[in-house]
Amino acid sequence: MRRREMFRAILAGAGVFVGLRQANAAPPDTPPPVPKVAYHLADLEKVGFVLGNIRNHYTGLDGQVEIALVVHGPALAAFRGEGLSSGLSDRFAGLVKDGLSPFACANTMMSMGMMLTDLLPGFAAADTGGVVKLAELQSQGYAYVRP
C-alpha cells in the first residue's frame, strides 16, 4: 500500500505543477507585448539612414512598435529647425506622428549652444544625457539599435 500512496502523491504533485504552469501561462487570445526599440544616433552622416530604418521598422511591424530615438553629438545639429530642408523635416514629423519619441542630449545641446526650442517639434530633453537615457530605456525593456 505504501507504493500506491506514494504513486498517488507523485501524481497529485505533478497535477498541481501542471495546473500552476497552465495558470501562469498567458491565455491564448492575449496579444504579444508590443516591442520597444531605442535607436542611438550620434553620427551626422547617418541621420537619413537612421530615419529610414525607423520608417522601415514601423512599416515592418504595421506600426505595432514603440520607438525612441536618442540623439547626441554631431547628429543633433541635423535637427535644428532653422534652415532645415523640408524633406528631412517632413520625414521626422511623419515619424513623430507615428509615435516616435525623440530625445535630445542636454549635454550636447549645452555644448552646441542650443535649446530644445531650437530643434524640430517633438523632441524631449534627455536631461541626464543621451547615453544615460539609452541605459534607462534599456532597463525598461527597450532593445538597443545603433545603425
UniProtKB/TrEMBL annotation:
<dbReference type="InterPro" id="IPR003787">
    <property type="entry name" value="Sulphur_relay_DsrE/F-like"/>
</dbReference>
<protein>
    <submittedName>
        <fullName>Uncharacterized protein</fullName>
    </submittedName>
</protein>
<dbReference type="InterPro" id="IPR027396">
    <property type="entry name" value="DsrEFH-like"/>
</dbReference>
<keyword id="KW-0732">Signal</keyword>
<feature type="signal peptide">
    <location>
        <begin position="1"/>
        <end position="25"/>
    </location>
</feature>
<dbReference type="Pfam" id="PF02635">
    <property type="entry name" value="DsrE"/>
</dbReference>
